[in-house]
Amino acid sequence: MRYSVPPQDPRRFVPTAARPVRAKVRQLDPDTQIQPHSHPWAQVAMAVSGVARITAGQATYLVPGGRAVWIPPGIEHVVSVVEKAELCTLYVHQDDKAPGPGVSAADCAPWRQCRVLEVSPLLRELVLQMDIAMDGTAPVTPTLLARERRLGDLALDELSRAAPVRLGIELPQDRRLRALCEAVLSEPSRHATLQGWAAEAGASERTVARLFRQELGTTFAAWRQQVLLAKALALAARKRPMAHIAAELGYASASAFTAMVRRSVGQPPRRFFNSA
């Protein structure tokens, strides 16, 4: 059963020119979904532990521990908890001249869209320390504000150096196809073929194949493969054995799973997971 909860009162965490980086940490149980929302500031959502799925714009991202999603201002997003998670959030004040986190306007183009980033141990600790310093249990003093500013400046510098990770999965706008894609994301191994998914959705295989080409410019098999790779990366980040990952994704053996990864990315799974 999925539990839908509203976002925490955003007025408590609004970033401003005086306090340009704000942080919060939230513990969330499995099957919790934070309702769709947006705000006029940028956000970095990172998993300290557990796994979350963040849907923003026309893509969805599986975020295990050690990963974060950069969400530019004004983009509606939904957070769904896959596995009990501790989520850290940075809210970043921005202006038109510098829409990236501590980067120059000339280098900010990639930051105008959502992206998945590696979270270094330093960045993780900085966010946790910002939350501890400004958790609302102590009066906001000039000393605390100065500490928040120093931690925030260093967090932005570390964020600007974070390596991007290709974990995004594009989603369609067509409501029928969107529902089918959401079902695949929830349980990608339930059906191995488009025929099975189309039958479950009450549509013909030809119709669904046509919608995939029209909406996403790809085939169902290629799209599902990206889902499987993202799921595998999330499982690998939790140190699951290769045989367990293969079985959970519906493969008869670890060798069959390895063959799929080699075909997809040209590397064996362990090398792909390490590089990703």
Order of helices and strands: EEEEEEEEHHEEHHHHHHH
Q: State the name of the first-level CATH class of the largest domain.
A: Mainly Beta
Which percent range describes the beta-strand content?
15-25%
Shape: globular
Low-confidence spans: pLDDT under 50, at least 5 residues? none
For the sheet with most strands, the description reads: 10 strands, mixed
How many discrete domains? 2
Total DSSP helices: 9
Topology-level CATH name of the largest domain: Jelly Rolls
3D structure, described in words:
The chain is an alpha+beta fold and 276 residues long. Helices cover 39% and strands 25% of the residues. It is built from 9 helices and 10 strands. The chain has helices at residues 121-133, 142-160, 175-186, 194-201, 205-216, 220-237, 242-248, 254-265, 269-275, and strands spanning 3-5, 21-28, 32-37, 42-56, 59-64, 67-71, 77-92, 115-118, 164-165, 168-170. Strands 1, 2, 3, 4, 5, 6, 7, 8, 9 and 10 form a 10-stranded mixed β-sheet that branches. 35% of the residues are buried. The model has no long low-confidence stretch (mean pLDDT 85).
